[in-house]
Amino acid sequence: MSTSESAIPAKSYHHGDLRAALIEAGLALLEARAADDLGLREVARAVGVSPTAIYRHFPDKRALMAALAAEGLARLAAAQRAASEAAGGGVAGFSATGAAYVRFALANPALFRLIFANSATADLLDGKPEDDAMAFLRANAAALAEGVGGDAQVVALQAWAIAHGLAMLMLDGQVPVDDALIDRVVDAGVIGK
Fold first, then answer.
1. What's residue 157's pLDDT?
2. What region holds the HTH tetR-type domain (predicted)?
3. How would you class 63 by CB atoms within 10 Å of its CB: exposed for 0-12, middle for 13-18, buried for 19 or more?
4. What is the mean pLDDT of residues 35-42?
5. Mean pLDDT across the chain, nearest whole number?
6. Structure pTM?
7. Three-state DSSP class for residue 53
8. Which residues contact 181 (CB under 8 A, 6 or more apart)?
9. Which of 33, 165, 173, 187 could form a disulfide with 37 if both were Cys (CB 3.0 to 4.6 A apart)?
């Protein structure tokens, strides 16, 4: 046996998509703790790889947190899109996206906080959305503004501020979590007027 053959372990670990597995593990760990309490070694251990393996995909904790935030934002956008479609689009669909936003925050508090602590989301007013959630908000706000004769940027900002504010108030225990209240507060029929 050659020296190079003896250096190869008899049973080596290989992961098909380690980056995706690390993100999934990080998301799962966020279900039980705040992002500040999440460590790279813990994520590597959850996937079953050595702590050094994580550094091939994420040079530091900040990079991992940014990847988790980006995936969280994609999931938020998917939840909002599904809610809008289920409500049939239009004003009802726009209201459903706001309610989905708040419910996503309540179901994923650590991830939600991480999204907005580490988000690379473009400024809503700059006209250049960089993620699905912002693009979806902007498009729906433009349609709603057209229907009520309002300014699309103002409508988008009002809708986001209402949904985000309600989510934070509920997460922080300032307002009780109440599904009916969520639906009443994010009613798009009153936005833009």
1. 86
2. 16-76
3. middle
4. 90
5. 83
6. 0.82
7. helix
8. 175
9. 33
